[in-house]
Fold this sequence. Notes:
Elements: H1 4-9, H2 13-20, H3 24-32, H4 36-42, H5 59-69, E1 76-80, H6 86-94, E2 99-104, H7 107-120, E3 125-129, E4 144-147, H8 153-167, E5 173-176, H9 182-187, E6 191-196, E7 201-205
Parallel strand pairs: 1-2, 1-4, 2-3, 4-5
Antiparallel strand pairs: 5-7, 6-7
Amino acid sequence: MKTFKDLLEHHLFVEAEELLLEDVEYAEDLMDELSDEAYKFIEPHWSAANTGDMISTPVDILKEISDFVNFKKNSTLVDLGSGHGYPSFVFSALNPTLKITGLELVEAKVLGAKKTVDRLNLENLEFKVQDLSDENVEIPLADYYFMHNPFNKEVAVEIADRLFQIARKNEIIILSTGGRELKPLLELGFKTRGKVDSFCVEILSLNTLEQLKTSK
Length: 216
Protein backbone atom coordinates (compact mmCIF):
# COMPACT_ATOMS: atom_id res chain seq x y z
CA MET A 1 0.00 0.00 0.00
CA LYS A 2 1.35 3.41 -0.98
CA THR A 3 1.96 5.91 1.81
CA PHE A 4 0.75 9.51 1.65
CA LYS A 5 4.29 10.57 0.71
CA ASP A 6 4.36 7.95 -2.07
CA LEU A 7 1.12 9.33 -3.51
CA LEU A 8 2.53 12.86 -3.54
CA GLU A 9 5.85 11.87 -5.07
CA HIS A 10 4.15 9.82 -7.79
CA HIS A 11 1.72 12.68 -8.55
CA LEU A 12 -1.30 10.62 -7.52
CA PHE A 13 -2.99 13.76 -6.23
CA VAL A 14 -6.63 12.58 -6.37
CA GLU A 15 -5.78 9.60 -4.15
CA ALA A 16 -3.74 11.85 -1.85
CA GLU A 17 -6.66 14.26 -1.38
CA GLU A 18 -9.03 11.37 -0.66
CA LEU A 19 -6.63 10.15 2.01
CA LEU A 20 -6.50 13.59 3.61
CA LEU A 21 -10.28 13.96 3.73
CA GLU A 22 -10.96 10.78 5.70
CA ASP A 23 -11.14 12.55 9.08
CA VAL A 24 -13.17 15.59 7.98
CA GLU A 25 -16.52 14.03 8.90
CA TYR A 26 -15.24 13.42 12.43
CA ALA A 27 -14.30 17.10 12.78
CA GLU A 28 -17.56 18.27 11.22
CA ASP A 29 -19.59 16.15 13.66
CA LEU A 30 -17.74 17.81 16.53
CA MET A 31 -18.45 21.25 15.05
CA ASP A 32 -22.15 20.38 14.80
CA GLU A 33 -22.12 19.88 18.57
CA LEU A 34 -20.85 23.40 19.27
CA SER A 35 -23.05 25.49 21.54
CA ASP A 36 -24.60 28.67 20.18
CA GLU A 37 -22.23 30.65 22.38
CA ALA A 38 -19.17 28.82 21.03
CA TYR A 39 -20.31 29.27 17.44
CA LYS A 40 -20.91 32.98 17.89
CA PHE A 41 -17.36 33.29 19.23
CA ILE A 42 -15.72 31.71 16.17
CA GLU A 43 -18.12 33.06 13.52
CA PRO A 44 -16.44 36.51 13.14
CA HIS A 45 -13.05 34.88 12.56
CA TRP A 46 -13.39 34.55 8.80
CA SER A 47 -12.88 30.88 7.86
CA ALA A 48 -13.00 29.43 11.36
CA ALA A 49 -16.67 28.47 11.08
CA ASN A 50 -16.21 26.77 7.70
CA THR A 51 -15.90 23.02 7.42
CA GLY A 52 -13.24 21.35 5.32
CA ASP A 53 -14.90 18.93 2.93
CA MET A 54 -12.83 20.46 0.14
CA ILE A 55 -9.14 21.32 0.00
CA SER A 56 -8.86 25.03 -0.74
CA THR A 57 -5.27 24.91 -1.92
CA PRO A 58 -5.06 21.81 -4.16
CA VAL A 59 -2.58 19.14 -3.14
CA ASP A 60 -0.63 19.42 -6.40
CA ILE A 61 -0.16 23.15 -5.74
CA LEU A 62 0.99 22.46 -2.18
CA LYS A 63 3.59 20.07 -3.56
CA GLU A 64 4.62 22.74 -6.06
CA ILE A 65 5.02 25.24 -3.21
CA SER A 66 7.12 22.76 -1.25
CA ASP A 67 9.35 22.04 -4.23
CA PHE A 68 9.76 25.75 -5.02
CA VAL A 69 10.59 26.88 -1.48
CA ASN A 70 12.91 23.91 -0.87
CA PHE A 71 12.60 24.09 2.93
CA LYS A 72 15.92 24.19 4.74
CA LYS A 73 16.91 21.02 6.55
CA ASN A 74 15.87 20.98 10.24
CA SER A 75 13.93 24.22 9.88
CA THR A 76 10.56 25.17 11.40
CA LEU A 77 7.21 26.26 9.98
CA VAL A 78 4.12 27.65 11.72
CA ASP A 79 0.77 27.37 9.94
CA LEU A 80 -1.23 30.36 11.20
CA GLY A 81 -4.93 29.50 11.25
CA SER A 82 -4.27 25.93 10.17
CA GLY A 83 -7.90 24.81 9.85
CA HIS A 84 -8.09 21.11 9.03
CA GLY A 85 -4.34 21.09 8.38
CA TYR A 86 -4.15 20.10 4.71
CA PRO A 87 -1.10 22.23 3.75
CA SER A 88 0.79 21.12 6.84
CA PHE A 89 0.18 17.44 6.02
CA VAL A 90 1.67 17.88 2.55
CA PHE A 91 4.68 19.90 3.75
CA SER A 92 5.26 17.42 6.57
CA ALA A 93 5.19 14.32 4.38
CA LEU A 94 7.52 15.81 1.78
CA ASN A 95 9.95 17.34 4.30
CA PRO A 96 10.54 14.92 7.19
CA THR A 97 13.11 17.19 8.92
CA LEU A 98 10.79 20.23 8.81
CA LYS A 99 9.15 20.72 12.21
CA ILE A 100 5.62 22.08 11.73
CA THR A 101 3.18 23.57 14.22
CA GLY A 102 -0.40 24.31 13.19
CA LEU A 103 -2.27 26.91 15.26
CA GLU A 104 -6.06 26.89 14.96
CA LEU A 105 -8.94 28.55 16.81
CA VAL A 106 -11.48 25.71 16.47
CA GLU A 107 -10.79 22.74 18.72
CA ALA A 108 -12.89 20.39 16.55
CA LYS A 109 -10.58 21.02 13.60
CA VAL A 110 -7.51 20.48 15.76
CA LEU A 111 -8.88 17.16 17.03
CA GLY A 112 -9.61 16.04 13.48
CA ALA A 113 -6.14 17.09 12.34
CA LYS A 114 -4.54 15.15 15.18
CA LYS A 115 -6.38 12.01 14.05
CA THR A 116 -4.93 12.52 10.57
CA VAL A 117 -1.43 13.02 12.01
CA ASP A 118 -1.69 9.67 13.77
CA ARG A 119 -3.21 7.92 10.76
CA LEU A 120 -0.52 9.18 8.38
CA ASN A 121 2.21 8.65 10.98
CA LEU A 122 3.65 12.15 10.64
CA GLU A 123 6.08 12.60 13.53
CA ASN A 124 7.26 16.12 12.62
CA LEU A 125 3.84 17.77 12.87
CA GLU A 126 1.64 18.97 15.73
CA PHE A 127 -1.54 21.03 16.05
CA LYS A 128 -2.57 23.30 18.91
CA VAL A 129 -5.73 25.22 19.78
CA GLN A 130 -4.81 28.91 19.70
CA ASP A 131 -6.80 32.14 19.39
CA LEU A 132 -4.47 34.28 17.29
CA SER A 133 -6.87 37.21 17.45
CA ASP A 134 -5.82 37.61 21.10
CA GLU A 135 -3.08 40.25 21.03
CA ASN A 136 -1.54 38.69 24.15
CA VAL A 137 -0.88 35.41 22.32
CA GLU A 138 2.72 35.22 21.15
CA ILE A 139 3.37 33.93 17.64
CA PRO A 140 6.11 31.28 17.91
CA LEU A 141 9.42 32.03 16.23
CA ALA A 142 9.91 29.96 13.08
CA ASP A 143 11.84 30.00 9.83
CA TYR A 144 8.66 29.89 7.73
CA TYR A 145 5.04 30.96 8.21
CA PHE A 146 2.14 29.75 6.05
CA MET A 147 -1.28 31.39 5.70
CA HIS A 148 -4.26 30.62 3.51
CA ASN A 149 -6.53 33.61 4.21
CA PRO A 150 -7.51 32.47 7.71
CA PHE A 151 -8.28 35.86 9.25
CA ASN A 152 -10.80 38.65 8.94
CA LYS A 153 -9.42 42.06 7.91
CA GLU A 154 -8.79 43.39 11.43
CA VAL A 155 -6.99 40.27 12.64
CA ALA A 156 -4.99 40.05 9.39
CA VAL A 157 -3.61 43.56 9.99
CA GLU A 158 -2.70 42.64 13.57
CA ILE A 159 -0.99 39.39 12.53
CA ALA A 160 0.96 41.20 9.81
CA ASP A 161 2.26 43.69 12.37
CA ARG A 162 3.31 40.94 14.77
CA LEU A 163 5.15 39.14 11.98
CA PHE A 164 6.83 42.43 11.11
CA GLN A 165 8.12 42.69 14.69
CA ILE A 166 9.51 39.16 14.43
CA ALA A 167 11.09 39.86 11.02
CA ARG A 168 12.91 42.95 12.31
CA LYS A 169 15.11 40.66 14.41
CA ASN A 170 14.97 37.35 12.56
CA GLU A 171 15.18 36.21 8.95
CA ILE A 172 11.80 34.67 8.18
CA ILE A 173 9.92 33.67 5.05
CA ILE A 174 6.14 34.02 4.76
CA LEU A 175 4.10 31.90 2.36
CA SER A 176 0.83 33.65 1.57
CA THR A 177 -1.87 32.47 -0.82
CA GLY A 178 -3.00 36.04 -1.41
CA GLY A 179 -5.37 36.38 1.53
CA ARG A 180 -6.25 39.39 3.65
CA GLU A 181 -2.82 39.33 5.24
CA LEU A 182 -0.98 40.05 1.95
CA LYS A 183 -1.80 43.75 1.60
CA PRO A 184 -0.77 44.76 5.16
CA LEU A 185 2.41 42.68 4.85
CA LEU A 186 3.37 44.52 1.66
CA GLU A 187 2.50 47.86 3.24
CA LEU A 188 4.85 47.07 6.14
CA GLY A 189 7.74 46.54 3.75
CA PHE A 190 7.73 42.80 3.07
CA LYS A 191 8.91 42.10 -0.48
CA THR A 192 7.92 39.35 -2.87
CA ARG A 193 10.89 37.00 -3.31
CA GLY A 194 9.14 34.43 -5.44
CA LYS A 195 5.76 33.33 -6.77
CA VAL A 196 4.00 30.09 -7.55
CA ASP A 197 1.96 31.60 -10.35
CA SER A 198 -0.33 28.62 -10.81
CA PHE A 199 -2.09 29.57 -7.55
CA CYS A 200 -0.98 33.17 -6.86
CA VAL A 201 1.24 32.12 -3.98
CA GLU A 202 3.52 34.90 -2.73
CA ILE A 203 6.79 34.11 -0.95
CA LEU A 204 7.72 37.13 1.16
CA SER A 205 10.56 38.33 3.35
CA LEU A 206 11.41 41.62 5.00
CA ASN A 207 15.13 41.54 4.35
CA THR A 208 16.80 40.70 1.05
CA LEU A 209 17.67 37.02 0.94
CA GLU A 210 20.71 36.05 -1.13
CA GLN A 211 18.79 33.04 -2.35
CA LEU A 212 15.44 31.55 -1.59
CA LYS A 213 16.34 28.01 -2.45
CA THR A 214 18.79 26.63 0.09
CA SER A 215 20.52 23.33 -0.41
CA LYS A 216 19.22 20.56 1.80
